[in-house]
Amino acid sequence: MQKLLGNRKLVISIFVVLILVATMVALGPLFYSIYMGRGVQTKPVDAAHTKPASTDVDGTWNVVAGTPHNFTSVGFTINEVLPAEKTTTSGSTKNVTGQAVIKDGKVEEGTITVDMTTLTTDKKVRDQNMKDKLFITRQFPEATFNLTEPADISAVPDDGSVAKVELTGDLTIKDKTKKVTQEFDVVRDGETIVMGGNILVNRLDYGIETPEMIAAKIEKEGEVNIRVTLQK
Protein backbone atom coordinates (compact mmCIF):
# COMPACT_ATOMS: atom_id res chain seq x y z
CA MET A 1 0.00 0.00 0.00
CA GLN A 2 2.77 2.44 0.93
CA LYS A 3 4.52 1.66 -2.34
CA LEU A 4 1.30 2.36 -4.23
CA LEU A 5 0.82 5.66 -2.41
CA GLY A 6 4.42 6.57 -3.13
CA ASN A 7 3.95 5.90 -6.83
CA ARG A 8 0.77 7.98 -6.87
CA LYS A 9 2.59 10.89 -5.21
CA LEU A 10 5.37 10.61 -7.77
CA VAL A 11 2.88 10.63 -10.65
CA ILE A 12 1.06 13.65 -9.17
CA SER A 13 4.36 15.50 -8.68
CA ILE A 14 5.40 14.85 -12.27
CA PHE A 15 1.96 15.95 -13.48
CA VAL A 16 2.22 19.22 -11.50
CA VAL A 17 5.70 19.89 -12.88
CA LEU A 18 4.46 19.31 -16.44
CA ILE A 19 1.59 21.75 -15.88
CA LEU A 20 3.99 24.38 -14.54
CA VAL A 21 6.36 23.91 -17.47
CA ALA A 22 3.50 24.16 -19.97
CA THR A 23 2.24 27.31 -18.26
CA MET A 24 5.69 28.90 -18.35
CA VAL A 25 6.09 28.08 -22.04
CA ALA A 26 2.67 29.50 -22.84
CA LEU A 27 2.90 32.64 -20.72
CA GLY A 28 6.66 33.21 -20.82
CA PRO A 29 6.60 35.34 -23.98
CA LEU A 30 3.74 37.40 -22.54
CA PHE A 31 5.63 38.10 -19.31
CA TYR A 32 8.78 38.80 -21.32
CA SER A 33 6.94 41.24 -23.55
CA ILE A 34 5.33 43.04 -20.61
CA TYR A 35 8.61 43.27 -18.74
CA MET A 36 10.78 44.24 -21.68
CA GLY A 37 8.44 46.33 -23.84
CA ARG A 38 9.02 47.35 -27.46
CA GLY A 39 11.60 50.00 -26.68
CA VAL A 40 12.01 53.52 -28.08
CA GLN A 41 11.99 53.69 -31.87
CA THR A 42 13.17 56.51 -34.13
CA LYS A 43 10.05 57.55 -36.03
CA PRO A 44 9.72 58.28 -39.77
CA VAL A 45 9.60 61.80 -41.17
CA ASP A 46 6.35 63.52 -40.16
CA ALA A 47 5.10 65.69 -43.03
CA ALA A 48 1.78 66.53 -41.37
CA HIS A 49 3.16 69.64 -39.67
CA THR A 50 5.72 70.91 -42.19
CA LYS A 51 5.76 74.38 -43.75
CA PRO A 52 6.92 75.58 -47.19
CA ALA A 53 10.67 76.11 -47.52
CA SER A 54 11.86 79.59 -46.58
CA THR A 55 15.54 79.36 -47.51
CA ASP A 56 17.68 78.27 -50.44
CA VAL A 57 18.63 74.61 -50.49
CA ASP A 58 22.33 75.23 -51.22
CA GLY A 59 24.76 75.79 -48.38
CA THR A 60 26.28 74.12 -45.33
CA TRP A 61 23.71 72.46 -43.11
CA ASN A 62 24.24 71.21 -39.56
CA VAL A 63 22.29 68.59 -37.64
CA VAL A 64 20.10 70.29 -35.01
CA ALA A 65 17.65 69.09 -32.37
CA GLY A 66 14.64 69.66 -34.63
CA THR A 67 10.99 70.16 -33.75
CA PRO A 68 8.69 68.08 -31.54
CA HIS A 69 7.27 66.47 -34.69
CA ASN A 70 10.61 65.88 -36.42
CA PHE A 71 13.25 65.83 -33.71
CA THR A 72 16.64 64.36 -34.58
CA SER A 73 16.99 60.73 -33.53
CA VAL A 74 19.01 57.69 -34.59
CA GLY A 75 18.61 54.15 -33.35
CA PHE A 76 18.11 50.50 -34.18
CA THR A 77 15.34 47.94 -34.46
CA ILE A 78 15.89 44.21 -33.99
CA ASN A 79 13.67 41.13 -33.89
CA GLU A 80 13.90 38.80 -30.92
CA VAL A 81 12.73 35.22 -31.42
CA LEU A 82 11.06 33.77 -28.34
CA PRO A 83 9.92 30.18 -27.83
CA ALA A 84 6.37 30.97 -28.96
CA GLU A 85 6.55 34.27 -30.82
CA LYS A 86 8.66 37.01 -32.39
CA THR A 87 8.96 40.45 -30.80
CA THR A 88 10.43 43.72 -32.05
CA THR A 89 12.72 45.83 -29.89
CA SER A 90 14.08 49.32 -30.60
CA GLY A 91 16.53 51.72 -29.04
CA SER A 92 17.45 55.28 -29.97
CA THR A 93 19.27 58.46 -28.99
CA LYS A 94 18.89 62.17 -29.70
CA ASN A 95 22.62 62.75 -29.23
CA VAL A 96 23.47 63.04 -32.91
CA THR A 97 25.80 65.44 -34.72
CA GLY A 98 26.54 65.92 -38.39
CA GLN A 99 26.77 68.16 -41.40
CA ALA A 100 25.79 68.26 -45.06
CA VAL A 101 27.13 70.43 -47.87
CA ILE A 102 24.70 71.08 -50.72
CA LYS A 103 25.77 72.70 -53.98
CA ASP A 104 23.62 73.16 -57.06
CA GLY A 105 20.92 71.00 -55.50
CA LYS A 106 23.27 68.07 -54.81
CA VAL A 107 24.45 66.82 -51.43
CA GLU A 108 28.19 66.64 -52.03
CA GLU A 109 29.25 65.89 -48.46
CA GLY A 110 27.37 64.40 -45.56
CA THR A 111 28.24 62.94 -42.17
CA ILE A 112 26.24 61.72 -39.19
CA THR A 113 27.82 60.76 -35.86
CA VAL A 114 25.83 58.94 -33.18
CA ASP A 115 26.70 58.82 -29.48
CA MET A 116 26.11 55.11 -28.84
CA THR A 117 26.68 55.50 -25.10
CA THR A 118 23.35 57.34 -24.83
CA LEU A 119 21.17 54.77 -26.60
CA THR A 120 18.04 53.98 -24.63
CA THR A 121 15.14 51.55 -24.90
CA ASP A 122 12.51 51.67 -22.17
CA LYS A 123 14.18 49.47 -19.55
CA LYS A 124 17.38 50.25 -17.64
CA VAL A 125 18.44 46.60 -17.43
CA ARG A 126 18.05 46.16 -21.18
CA ASP A 127 19.87 49.46 -21.80
CA GLN A 128 22.88 48.21 -19.88
CA ASN A 129 22.89 44.82 -21.60
CA MET A 130 22.58 46.52 -24.97
CA LYS A 131 25.56 48.79 -24.30
CA ASP A 132 27.73 46.16 -22.61
CA LYS A 133 26.95 43.08 -24.72
CA LEU A 134 25.59 44.18 -28.09
CA PHE A 135 27.41 47.38 -29.00
CA ILE A 136 30.18 47.38 -26.34
CA THR A 137 29.94 51.16 -26.16
CA ARG A 138 32.85 51.55 -23.74
CA GLN A 139 35.11 50.39 -26.56
CA PHE A 140 33.05 51.69 -29.50
CA PRO A 141 31.30 54.88 -28.30
CA GLU A 142 30.33 56.18 -31.75
CA ALA A 143 28.66 54.99 -34.94
CA THR A 144 28.86 56.99 -38.17
CA PHE A 145 27.37 57.36 -41.62
CA ASN A 146 29.45 59.10 -44.30
CA LEU A 147 28.01 59.93 -47.70
CA THR A 148 30.25 58.56 -50.47
CA GLU A 149 28.27 59.52 -53.57
CA PRO A 150 26.56 62.84 -54.40
CA ALA A 151 22.79 62.80 -53.90
CA ASP A 152 20.52 64.96 -56.04
CA ILE A 153 17.81 66.65 -53.96
CA SER A 154 16.91 69.34 -56.49
CA ALA A 155 13.56 67.62 -57.10
CA VAL A 156 12.52 67.86 -53.44
CA PRO A 157 9.50 70.23 -53.45
CA ASP A 158 9.66 73.54 -51.59
CA ASP A 159 6.02 73.24 -50.48
CA GLY A 160 6.74 71.05 -47.45
CA SER A 161 5.87 67.73 -49.08
CA VAL A 162 8.06 64.62 -48.96
CA ALA A 163 10.25 63.28 -51.76
CA LYS A 164 12.33 60.12 -52.05
CA VAL A 165 16.11 60.44 -52.34
CA GLU A 166 18.61 57.58 -52.58
CA LEU A 167 21.68 57.94 -50.36
CA THR A 168 24.84 55.85 -50.60
CA GLY A 169 27.52 55.88 -47.96
CA ASP A 170 29.69 54.05 -45.46
CA LEU A 171 27.97 52.88 -42.28
CA THR A 172 30.37 52.20 -39.41
CA ILE A 173 29.36 50.35 -36.25
CA LYS A 174 31.89 48.89 -33.79
CA ASP A 175 34.70 50.04 -36.11
CA LYS A 176 33.37 47.84 -38.93
CA THR A 177 32.39 49.67 -42.12
CA LYS A 178 30.02 48.55 -44.86
CA LYS A 179 28.78 50.41 -47.94
CA VAL A 180 25.01 50.87 -47.85
CA THR A 181 22.45 52.33 -50.24
CA GLN A 182 18.99 53.25 -49.00
CA GLU A 183 16.07 55.40 -50.08
CA PHE A 184 15.32 58.23 -47.65
CA ASP A 185 12.34 60.52 -47.17
CA VAL A 186 13.39 64.16 -47.53
CA VAL A 187 11.29 67.25 -46.81
CA ARG A 188 12.09 70.96 -46.80
CA ASP A 189 10.39 72.46 -43.77
CA GLY A 190 10.74 76.22 -43.33
CA GLU A 191 14.40 76.90 -42.59
CA THR A 192 15.22 73.21 -42.16
CA ILE A 193 15.64 70.00 -44.12
CA VAL A 194 14.48 66.72 -42.58
CA MET A 195 15.81 63.37 -43.77
CA GLY A 196 14.67 59.99 -42.54
CA GLY A 197 15.02 56.34 -43.47
CA ASN A 198 15.66 52.80 -42.28
CA ILE A 199 18.91 51.16 -43.37
CA LEU A 200 18.64 47.37 -43.53
CA VAL A 201 21.67 45.68 -41.98
CA ASN A 202 23.01 42.27 -41.05
CA ARG A 203 24.29 42.57 -37.49
CA LEU A 204 27.03 39.99 -38.16
CA ASP A 205 28.59 42.40 -40.67
CA TYR A 206 29.28 44.71 -37.75
CA GLY A 207 30.41 42.12 -35.22
CA ILE A 208 27.21 42.32 -33.19
CA GLU A 209 26.83 38.93 -31.54
CA THR A 210 23.78 37.54 -29.78
CA PRO A 211 24.27 37.96 -26.02
CA GLU A 212 23.69 35.02 -23.76
CA MET A 213 19.93 34.88 -23.27
CA ILE A 214 17.66 32.13 -22.05
CA ALA A 215 14.39 33.29 -23.55
CA ALA A 216 15.32 35.01 -26.79
CA LYS A 217 17.63 34.94 -29.78
CA ILE A 218 18.30 37.93 -32.02
CA GLU A 219 17.71 37.62 -35.75
CA LYS A 220 20.58 38.52 -38.06
CA GLU A 221 18.63 41.14 -40.02
CA GLY A 222 17.74 44.44 -38.40
CA GLU A 223 17.46 48.17 -39.10
CA VAL A 224 19.34 51.35 -38.37
CA ASN A 225 16.63 54.00 -38.01
CA ILE A 226 17.59 57.57 -38.92
CA ARG A 227 15.77 60.88 -38.76
CA VAL A 228 17.82 64.08 -38.75
CA THR A 229 16.86 67.73 -38.99
CA LEU A 230 19.41 70.07 -40.56
CA GLN A 231 19.62 73.85 -40.49
CA LYS A 232 22.04 76.42 -41.93
TrEMBL record:
Keyword Isomerase listed: no
Task: Please list every transmembrane segment annotated in the UniProt record, as residue ranges.
Answer: 12-35
**InterPro entries in alphabetical order:** Lipid/polyisoprenoid-bd_YceI, TTHA0802/YceI-like_sf
**Origin: domain of life:** Bacteria
According to the UniProt entry, the coiled-coil residues are none
Which SUPFAM superfamilies does its entry note?
YceI-like (SSF101874)
The question of whether GTP-binding is a record keyword is answered with no
User: Which of UniProt's keywords are assigned here?
Assistant: Membrane, Transmembrane, Transmembrane helix
Domain (Lipid/polyisoprenoid-binding YceI-like): residue spans on this chain: 60-231
User: What is this protein's name?
Assistant: Lipid/polyisoprenoid-binding YceI-like domain-containing protein
